[in-house]
Design goal:
Elements (H helix, E strand, L loop, with lengths): L1 H10 L8 H6 L3 H26 L1 H8 L3 H26 L4 H20 L1 H4 L27 H6 L9 H7 L4 H15 L2 H12 L2 H31 L25 H15 L11 E2 L10 H9 L6 E2 L7 H16 L2 H32 L3 H29 L4 H19 L50 E3 L4 E2 L7 E5 L6 E5 H5 L9 E3 L6 H23 L1 H10 L6 H17 L1 H11 L2 E6 L5 E7 L1 H54 L4 H12 L2 H6 L1
Antiparallel strand pairs: 1-2, 3-4, 3-7, 5-6, 6-7, 8-9
Keywords: Cell membrane, Disulfide bond, Glycoprotein, Ion transport, Lipid transport, Membrane, Transmembrane, Transmembrane helix, Transport
GO molecular function: sodium-independent organic anion transmembrane transporter activity
Family: Belongs to the organo anion transporter (TC 2.A.60) family.
Length: 702
């Protein structure tokens, strides 16, 4: 029997098994599959989320709504998270995590399809224009119908009676479907991050966990690249493509009234998200545990046995049946224990403030590029996808590599994340100096004589040159005069006639253009706004370069900052900590940030559009200088506040680390003494452990 014991004992020695070191550093096949599936799910949810951001201006124009209402729609995603995230994070960690993630992906896809639904039940998009595509080039159309000055001042051009279609359209706001679809997307996305990240951290080697999470987050950042590129492609395509003759469309993608095929991208994103659910159905509830993450309840003898056994390099967690009553009973005490951690609370406060800044900035950045630098929605989305997002992806990946290479601890990760964030903050200040002047629009940013001066009052659109015309101040049908000034409509430009048709229409004998021009004779105007000045085009490349650099530097600290959250929490509280972190940031940042950013941006609007059925619609032109100040100022101001909180956070973190080191030292000494006492009885302990770990059949064989 002793010989058998020696043989068995010898078989447990790692040196006698050539595959032991390979097993020790390898990644379990199911973990590889989970990594691939989670990466695809992250890609899908990031693609649909970024596509939503890219359609901000398209939705504004299609549904004739202001920016703050778009902020509510955008924040509805976080509302969906708020409804279920705490329970999904807590209960989901104790149930079958991969299958819960699969259900979430299916819900996300259904929500994405629901967002596209209004396009198929709403009427065709109507452009407010005075141009008629059916007019022959040989016929004249007078944009300036004769009337008395009194009738012009007292009211608008006689309004057309509301049609049945208008009544039907006004009976229900179609943007509600977009809101509800985004809520459903938020509910479906809830389990992906907390359950996915905790699953990786549970079953990956400690030294590899940060690298794996960095890889997943890098893939997640690649998703927005395709999301914004998809947004750029769809923004080029007219919203009613296939239903209208494009020859009759008199506007271009650069026009403030242009609406792209926003619905098409949602159908594509929904299909991809649905596909991402498939792999999770074939993954197990648990995987083999790495040797450095065995159950802490094991005795020192069990610890030594596991480390010595090549066949026990990984140990499965016992799959106990879920006791929902017991789980519910422990929920409140567990939350109290988590919220009693001061380091976690400070971390929450800092990330909430920084997420307010980040979410508000990202949501309205394409719109900022459109309005401030005069770019089309398609080009703004393309630049976001090809310049900003790859810089963020590279930064996230590099941060994970740095943390793995230099084996940064909790304090090292905190310092690295803070340093990169502070450097990115200083670089972002330079954006304030990269401003463009307002476009010259008669009656809004300049007078009809060409003198610069802002006006938020609609009566300033009238002048002596158009007093004989019955013009509508509600129309936005801009024309560019030969003098380089944009006029709100051909009527307000005082144009007496027009030639041509469609996009080739030219307006002649424009009296208001003559007021601000030194050229005599017949002054004409063409469709669309006048292009921005050359100095703005020169500044724009520098803006893009600085934007890419600052995005890269800030995102360098993303992975170390995230691992700081994971490592300062007890293992059993990890899923709940991630869930509450996501809940708090989305509740206090994801929901309000787009709303108040949008509301503040709305205050800089100079000319509002009007709905077909009456009421204020989407903004047509902004005060670009004020837009720049409130948009960038609010972004930088929030980040300034977060840095002050970081100072107290470092003090608490140092105290936390010292306390943990002291506890580990005391506990480690006691454990070492226990191991020495048991040294002489090691063979008997190993036999006992073998008996306790093996099943009855195995014991009989031995």
């Amino acid at each position: 029997m002793k010989k058998m014991d020696n043989t068995a004992t010898g078989s447990w020695t790692p040196d006698k098994n050539p595959t032991s070191s390979t097993m020790k550093n390898s990644c379990h096949p199911n973990l590889k599959m989970f990594l691939a599936a989670l990466s695809f799910a992250y890609f899908a949810k990031a693609l649909s989320g970024s596509y939503m951001k890219s359609t901000i201006t398209q939705l504004e124009r299609r549904f004739d709504i202001p920016s703050y209402l778009i902020g509510i729609i955008d924040g509805s995603f976080e509302i969906g998270n708020l409804l279920v995230i705490a329970f999904v994070s807590y209960f989901g960690a104790k149930l079958h995590r991969p299958k819960i993630i699969a259900v979430g992906c299916i819900l996300m896809s259904f929500g994405t399809f629901l967002i596209a639904m209004p396009h198929f039940i709403i009427g065709r998009y109507k452009i407010e224009t005075s141009v008629r595509a059916t007019v022959n080039s040989t016929n004249n159309l007078s944009p300036c119908p004769e009337s008395s000055p009194e009738s012009t001042r007292t009211g608008d051009r006689p309004s057309i009676l509301l049609s049945r279609g208008c009544e039907r359209e006004s009976s229900v706001s179609m943007w509600i479907y977009v809101f509800l679809g985004n809520v459903l997307r938020g509910i479906g996305e809830t389990p992906v991050q907390p359950l996915g990240i905790s699953y990786i951290d549970d079953y990956a080697q400690s030294e590899n966990a940060a690298f794996y999470i960095g890889c997943v987050q890098t893939i997640a950042v690649i998703g927005p690249v395709f999301g914004y590129l998809l947004g750029s492609l769809c923004a080029k395509i007219y919203v009613d493509i296939g239903y209208v003759d494009m020859e009759t469309v008199t506007i271009t993608p650069g026009d403030a009234r242009w609406v792209g095929a926003w619905w098409m991208g949602y159908l594509i994103a929904g299909t991809i998200t649905l596909m991402s659910a498939v792999p999770f159905w074939f993954l197990p509830k648990s995987l083999p545990m790495p040797v450095d993450k065995h159950d802490t309840s094991c005795t020192p003898e069990q610890t030594r046995f596991i480390k010595d056994s090549p066949t026990m390099e990984h140990k499965f967690r016992p799959e106990e049946p879920a006791n929902l009553h017991q789980m519910t009973k422990e929920f409140v005490p567990t939350v109290k224990s988590l919220l009693g951690n001061p380091v976690y609370i400070i971390y929450l406060c800092v990330t909430i403030i920084q997420f307010n800044s980040l979410i508000g900035m990202v949501t309205y950045k394409p719109k900022y590029i459109e309005q401030h630098y005069g770019q089309s929605a398609s080009k703004a989305n393309f630049l976001m996808g090809m310049i900003n997002i790859p810089a963020v992806a590279l930064g996230m990946f590099s941060g994970g590599v740095v943390m793995k290479k230099y084996k940064l601890g909790i304090m090292g990760a905190a310092k690295f994340a803070f340093g990169t964030s502070l450097l990115g903050y200083f670089l972002s200040i330079f954006f304030l100096a990269m401003g463009c002047e307002n476009s010259k629009v008669a009656g809004i940013t300049v007078s009809y004589t060409g003198v610069e001066g802002l006006s938020y009052k609609e009566p300033s659109l009238f002048s002596d040159c158009n007093s004989g015309c019955l013009c509508s101040i509600r129309e936005w049908d801009p024309v560019c005069g030969e003098n380089g000034i944009t006029y709100v409509s051909p009527c307000l430009a005082g144009c007496a006639s027009s030639t041509g048709s469609g996009r080739n229409t030219v307006f002649d004998n424009c009296r208001c253009i003559a007021l601000a021009s030194t050229q005599p004779g017949n002054l004409t105007a063409t469709l669309g706004q006048c292009p921005h000045r050359d100095n703005c085009d020169k500044i724009f490349p520098y803006f893009l370069a600085l934007s890419a650099l600052s995005s890269f530097i800030i995102s360098l600290g993303g992975t170390p900052g995230f691992m700081l959250l994971v490592r300062c929490i007890k293992p059993e509280l990890k899923s709940l900590a991630l869930g509450i972190h996501t809940l708090a940031t989305r509740t206090l940042a994801g929901i309000p940030a787009p709303i108040y950013f949008g509301a503040i941006i709305d205050t800089t609007c100079l000319k509002w559009g009007y709905k077909t059925c009456g009421g204020r619609g989407a903004c047509r032109i902004y005060n670009t200088s004020a837009y720049r100040i409130v948009y960038l100022g609010l972004t930088l101001g929030l980040r300034t506040v977060s840095f002050f909180l970081c100072i107290s956070g470092f003090a608490l973190l140092k105290r936390h680390i010292k306390r943990e080191e002291k506890y580990a030292l005391t506990n480690g000494s006691a454990e070492l003494e226990s191991l020495r006492k048991e040294e002489n009885n090691s063979i008997h302990c190993e036999q006992f452990i073998l008996a306790s770990d093996c099943n009855p059949d195995r014991e009989t064989c031995l």
